[in-house]
Structures are given as C-alpha cells and as structure tokens.
Write a structure and sequence with these properties.
The chain is of the alpha+beta class. The chain is 27% helix and 32% strand. It is built from 2 helices and 7 strands, in the order H-E-E-E-E-E-E-E-H. The radius of gyration is 15 Å and the shape is globular. The C terminus is likely disordered.
C-alpha cells in the first residue's frame, strides 16, 4: 500500500488538482516526448485516467490506465497484464502469488516512471492554474 500512496503523491506533483481536470491535457518539454493525460471518469472518490507518451510514430506508450482513490490518497495501475520473468501473465487468471507479483511489478513501474517524468519537467499545473507545493516535485 505504501507504493500506492507514493504513486498518489507523485501524481499530485504532476497535477496538483486532479479532481478539477476533465478531458485531454498535454505536457510538452523540450527534448522529451509529449506526455498525455486523458481523464476517463471522475467520481466522488475516484478519478480514472490514462497517462502515456505520444511517440514520434504516433504510437501511445506506455499507455497506462490508472485509478486514483482520493479518499484513501492512493493510486494504482488498472492494467490486467504484465510480464513476469519473461512470461506475459494475466493477473485474473494467475495463481494468487503470481497475481500479487504482477500487480506489484506494474505499480512499481508507475512509481519509477512518475519519478522520471517529473525529472524531465513534465507537469499539468497550468491546466488547473495552481502551483505544486509538495517537496517531491522539486526532485
């Protein structure tokens, strides 16, 4: 659960007021791929969104679907597939241990990727007219 909390903090650094967003937003940083944030659904306690790079070829990668739990202050990847030890697994069809390892792996990827896009300078602060106030954003 700590990783989900860290992912939430990093997402809030990327976009301080996720609840205020609707639609499609793009962060452009010189020398980096455009980062796209697409709000899929807003509910009272959750936000579902896609976060992806737009590659030069037009391909969306890594194309991650996320759910943010505002009441629990957590964020998790909703993807149902991951590659574990070279084998593509589907979490809902795997034994319990493998499914947990799969979920851990894809959420660990999100943790590292959010750090990376933050270091690149990406952000959606202008989209909601607020400045980020968390300590992690400066890293």
């Amino acid at each position: 659960m700590e990783m989900y909390e860290q992912n939430y903090i990093r997402l809030r650094c990327l976009c301080p007021d996720i609840r205020a967003l609707t639609g499609h937003h793009v962060s452009r940083v010189p020398g980096a791929h455009d980062l796209h944030l697409m709000v899929q659904e807003q509910a009272r306690h959750t936000t579902t969104l896609k976060l992806t790079y737009m590659m030069d070829s037009g391909e969306l990668r890594p194309d991650v679907m996320l759910r943010i739990y505002h009441d629990a202050l957590q964020a998790e990847v909703l993807s149902r597939r991951c590659q574990l030890n070279g084998v593509v697994m589907q979490a809902e069809r795997s034994p319990t241990q493998a499914a947990l390892a799969c979920r851990w792996k894809i959420n660990r990827f999100l943790y590292k990727w959010l750090n990376y896009v933050g270091r690149q300078g990406h952000g959606f602060r202008d989209a909601v007219s607020q400045d980020c106030v968390c300590d992690l954003c400066e890293a």
